[in-house]
């Protein structure tokens, strides 16, 4: 078959879809906002183009809509749409539905455009385009890695490779899924194309292994095994060229990346979490994941087993997961994903949705084996297309590629290529093309609207979320522009709760309470709204109300230090020692037995009793013996309870009171004075840093965290942790991860969670 205009159009459409790889964040807090908007808009344009060339594509539409794969995919989409009715948060379902619908139409559009085209011409054109993408993506990784190493440590240099894909793990996954098409060009092209393919494969593999992502190491090994297994089974004549031109360059690239990483490690002052290729391969074991992925898989599976019919609603596992973390997660860290899209789909949509999603991959496996067994289509094309599906499948087993536009685009393209050799159906329903065009407009236009709203929200969230742990500075009128979709931030905090913080700052307490009430059910499990209500009623000196909401928040999430502090604070103001004791016991019951927990308890009891009695002093001594390394936290309390320096006692109480009231600048001044009066206690410097952090003066906060870290008595890792949080708030993710690693090295308990949340998958 000779290539036609339609063949060129199919290749151009593929290239346009794949261009999403290089869509930047466009001012949003995450690249996926702009990328999903681009992809959904392009899908509508292609549906319109197909409609304009209706007679050309009429037969293709009829055939593609009768694919069994299309039926299963359609059932998944419409079951997900139906989950809007019962979802925990229907608005979040809309946000994720827009992405699923976009992916659905990427597959349908490409399948229609690929139908009955010259397969060799089509596959070669797409193969060259993807190989070019692989080359440029690899160059970005390799150049970025070298540039980062000039100013960062190894961990930060690797984590900083996330410009177009959100984080370095997604960067690695998107590199991996492109590699099979470079292998196709190597095996099918003449010498000039073969050399280009080898070069792209070498650079792509080199960049892939620089990224230190264990899941892609597994994926790379698997596709190589499947590739050579397929050749041995169906194309033995290609085995020797494959060994020479595919395996050899790949192995050389792995050795080269290992050598480059060895040089980088040798230049490090301290060992970090990343290292050579051999080190990372050695880290691949079940035990390394027992506190992260395996726990998440277990909780998602448990929820799916207890909700087998409906699930939580599409995209709502992130909310359903929260109760499982009550006794485990520090602060307000939410496991947004199960790190396994298959299990998460069962948790989101029950048996029907989960089986549909798994069925898509089983069908692609079945058709691949069937086509190879029947010698239908070029064996190499069938193998290569399925290898791309395999890359996605491995990532879906260990991460969450369903969220990322580039990965969804490649899955759709690869699936469309796998299914090209399908038999033609004899059914001829005249209305099918009309239904396709109407359904396309009816589904994609709302998806574009939602994608645009999400994109606009992410542009504001970039600043609002940067201030979430700080004194808000952004103008309220700008925050009020937040769209109603989505109603949750990327960390599942209700967006209207974010707005309420600005009303609280402006002392518009009625407005703050109003929006908190409006968003009460947006995330019913996190109780962040109750945390903010505590602040409002404390400012209004309505301590009974403040205590009610502090208690409700704390009981829901007792490992959050801010919730616990509020609970102790309001109980002390009400002189309720029973509630203080209960709060302590609840914290101990959830394994939160640390110096901070006991210190807050001692301070609360001291305030209620207006002094230290025999029992309180005895508890102080036990606490000091139990946590000998936490002098920074406990020394000021020790001085107060023992009746030490009265100036220090008064100043500490004054600084604490100012901080609780949100007067961070004044509190910082008090802690600076304490630092000069008590230079042996580094916690004063640390407290200055925390005040500036809370007041969003991150340059100042980093200065004092650095001074605190350098203090000879500081061995807690807390300053390094909050330095990381400051850097994270200013978008310096690589520097933040380096700080979190220093904190973890000193044993600070929250550091590991921060690394898992922000630095690794």
From TrEMBL:
One of its GO terms (molecular function) is ligase activity. It is found in: Membrane. Its main location: membrane. The keyword Ligase applies. Pfam families: Wzy_C. Residues 199-358 form the O-antigen ligase-related domain. Keywords: Ligase, Membrane, Transmembrane, Transmembrane helix. The chain crosses the membrane at residues 7-24, 36-54, 66-88, 94-114, 121-142, 169-186, 191-211, 242-261, 349-368, 380-400, 434-451. This is O-antigen ligase family protein. It comes from Aquirufa originis.
């Amino acid at each position: 078959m000779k290539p036609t205009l339609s063949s060129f159009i199919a290749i151009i459409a593929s290239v346009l879809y794949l261009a999403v790889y290089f869509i930047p964040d466009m001012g949003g807090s995450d690249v996926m906002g702009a990328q999903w908007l681009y992809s959904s808009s392009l899908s509508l344009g292609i549906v319109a183009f197909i409609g304009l060339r209706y007679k050309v594509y009429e037969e293709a539409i009829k055939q593609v809509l009768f694919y069994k794969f299309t039926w299963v995919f359609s059932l998944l989409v419409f079951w997900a749409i139906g989950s809007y009715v019962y979802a925990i948060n229907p608005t979040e379902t809309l946000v994720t539905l827009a992405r699923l619908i976009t992916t659905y139409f990427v597959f349908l559009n490409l399948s229609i455009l690929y139908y009955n085209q010259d397969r060799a011409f089509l596959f070669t054109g797409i193969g060259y385009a993807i190989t070019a993408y692989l080359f440029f993506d690899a160059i970005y990784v390799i150049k970025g890695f070298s540039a980062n190493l000039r100013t960062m440590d190894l961990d930060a240099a690797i984590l900083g490779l996330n410009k177009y894909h959100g984080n370095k793990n997604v960067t690695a996954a998107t590199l991996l899924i492109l590699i099979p098409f470079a292998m196709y060009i190597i095996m099918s092209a003449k010498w000039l194309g073969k050399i280009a393919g080898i070069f792209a494969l070498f650079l792509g593999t080199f960049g892939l292994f620089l990224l230190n992502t264990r899941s892609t190491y597994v994926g790379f090994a698997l596709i190589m095994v499947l590739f050579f297994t397929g050749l041995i089974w169906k194309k033995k004549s290609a085995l020797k060229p494959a060994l020479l031109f595919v395996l050899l360059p790949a192995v050389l690239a792995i050795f080269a990346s290992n050598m480059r990483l060895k040089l980088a490690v040798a230049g490090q002052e301290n060992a970090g979490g990343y290292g050579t290729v051999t080190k990372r391969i050695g880290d691949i074991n079940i035990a390394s994941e027992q506190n992260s992925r395996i726990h998440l898989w277990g909780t998602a599976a448990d929820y799916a087993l207890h909700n087998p019919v409906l699930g939580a609603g599409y995209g709502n596992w992130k909310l359903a997961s929260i109760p499982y973390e009550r006794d485990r997660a520090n602060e307000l860290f939410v496991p947004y994903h199960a790190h396994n899209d298959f299990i998460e789909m069962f948790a989101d949509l029950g048996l029907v949705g989960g089986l549909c999603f798994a069925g898509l991959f089983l069908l692609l496996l079945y058709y691949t084996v069937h086509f190879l067994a029947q010698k239908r289509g070029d064996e190499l094309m069938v193998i290569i297309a399925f290898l791309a599906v395999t890359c996605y499948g491995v990532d879906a087993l260990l991460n969450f590629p369903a969220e990322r536009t580039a990965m969804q685009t490649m899955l759709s393209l690869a699936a469309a290529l796998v299914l090209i050799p399908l038999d033609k159906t004899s059914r001829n329903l005249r209305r099918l093309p009309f239904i396709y065009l109407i359904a396309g407009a009816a589904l994609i236009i709302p998806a574009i609207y939602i994608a645009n709203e999400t994109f606009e929200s992410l542009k504001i969230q970039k600043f609002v979320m940067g201030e979430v742990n700080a004194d808000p500075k952004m103008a309220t009128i700008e925050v009020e522009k937040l769209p109603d979709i989505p109603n949750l931030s990327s960390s599942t905090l209700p967006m209207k709760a974010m707005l309420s913080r600005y009303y609280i700052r402006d002392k518009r307490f009625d407005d703050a309470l109003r929006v908190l009430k409006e968003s009460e059910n947006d995330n019913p499990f996190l109780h962040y709204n109750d945390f903010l209500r505590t602040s409002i009623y404390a400012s209004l000196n309505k301590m009974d109300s403040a205590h009610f909401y502090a208690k409700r928040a704390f009981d829901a999430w007792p490992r959050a230090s801010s919730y616990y502090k509020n609970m102790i604070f309001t109980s002390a103001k009400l002189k309720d020692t029973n509630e203080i004791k209960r709060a302590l016991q609840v914290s101990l019951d959830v394994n939160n037995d640390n110096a901070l927990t006991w210190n807050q308890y001692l301070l609360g009891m001291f305030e209620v009793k207006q002094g230290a009695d025999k029992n309180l002093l005895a508890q102080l001594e036990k606490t000091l013996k139990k946590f000998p390394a936490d002098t920074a936290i406990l020394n000021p309390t020790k001085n107060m309870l023992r009746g030490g320096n009265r100036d220090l006692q008064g100043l500490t109480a004054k600084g604490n009171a100012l901080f609780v009231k949100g007067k961070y600048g004044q509190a910082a001044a008090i802690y600076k004075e304490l630092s000069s009066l008590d230079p042996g206690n580094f916690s004063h410097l640390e407290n200055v840093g925390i005040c500036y952090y809370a007041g969003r003066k991150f340059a100042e906060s980093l200065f004092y965290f650095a001074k605190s870290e350098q203090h000879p008595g500081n061995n807690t890792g807390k300053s390094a942790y909050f330095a990381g949080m400051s850097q994270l708030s200013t978008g310096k993710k690589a520097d933040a991860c380096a700080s979190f690693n220093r904190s973890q090295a000193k044993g600070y308990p929250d550091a590991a969670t921060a690394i898992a949340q922000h630095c690794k998958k």
